[in-house]
Structures are given as C-alpha cells and as structure tokens.
Write a structure and sequence with these properties.
By secondary structure, this protein is mostly helical. The chain is built from one helix and two strands.
C-alpha cells in the first residue's frame, strides 16, 4: 500500500494481532453479557467422559 510492506513471511506487519484478539474477546464477552446468554457457555455436568455410542 503506497510502497509500504504489509506482510513479511506471512506475518502481518501493520497490525498488533495480540491486541486485536484481546479486543475481540472483550467485545464478544460484552455481547454475550448484554444478551443474557452466559448460561449457554457453561459445560453441562457429565459432558466430558461420556459417549452415546454403544
């Protein structure tokens, strides 16, 4: 872009990826809180370690 290197060796040079991921996580958590869907994130008791297959 105007002679500026945006990627080098498949790594984005113009964006702090860790910062973007942190911001996305915060916004996703806020959206879940606003909609009242926190209960859907809980893993039901007995979910792991059981199989429906005979």
């Amino acid at each position: 872009m105007n002679g500026r290197v945006l990627m080098r060796d498949r790594q984005v040079q113009t964006v702090n990826e860790d910062q973007v991921l942190e911001m996305a996580q915060r916004e996703a958590e806020a959206a879940i809180r606003r909609t009242g869907l926190e209960r859907l994130l809980a893993t039901p008791e007995g979910f792991w370690g059981r199989s429906r297959l005979p």
